[in-house]
Amino acid sequence: MRQENSKPVNGCGCLVLLMCIGVLTAIALPSYLSSVNGGKQSEGKHYISFMNKTQQAKFAKKGAFSDHIPDLGLDIETKTKWYKYSIRATDKAAFNYGVSKQEGPKSYVGGVFVVPAKAVEPNAAQDEMTTTSILCETDSDGTIKPAEPIYLNGKVICGKGTTQVTK
């Protein structure tokens, strides 16, 4: 039998491995960072959406909005790691805020408005009132309280510097 002499490779495999790890990191890092902010933002979206729905139910039952988060009956803290939550309520509207506590995630505002039921349901009684809502996200990241949505000409629209996420 014949044996071949083999020479050891001097670190070439390690260098290639490190280069591959570097390239993969450069490719994956932006996606990872985006998903981290997306997870943070998911909290804000869901909390404000729940607050909107609960405000609508509260108005349907009591004829008034709540201006205190504990009164909504939701298990929501007013401050979490990522957001500070608050409410501003009037006789005709409730504004639910999720303001980012850090520069990364976007902030959210929800609006619930008392409107003539005919604006939503054509077969409703002339004097019947109901609610409609909107969820808005800031156009840029930051810790500034977003502008309130408005009810204008029979439609709810997001305030300046915000975009509608969902109704």
Can you describe this structure?
- By secondary structure, this protein is α+β, with helices and mostly antiparallel strands.
- The chain has one domain.
- The protein is built from 1 helix and 7 strands, in the order αβββββββ.
- A 5-stranded antiparallel beta sheet has the order 1-2-3-4-7, covered by helices on one side. Strands 5-6 form a two-stranded antiparallel ribbon.
- Major sheet: order of its strands? 1-2-3-4-7
Alpha plus pi helix count: 1
Low-confidence spans: pLDDT under 50, at least 5 residues? 17-37
Q: CA-to-CA gap between the ends?
A: 80 Å
Radius of gyration: 26 Å
N-to-C order of helices and strands = HEEEEEEE
Query: Percent helix among the residues?
Result: 25-40%
Outline the biggest β-sheet: 5 strands, antiparallel
Summed up, the domain count is 1
Strand content: 25-35%
Mean pLDDT: 83
What structural class is derived from the secondary structure elements? alpha+beta
**Count of beta strands:** 7
* Approximate shape: globular
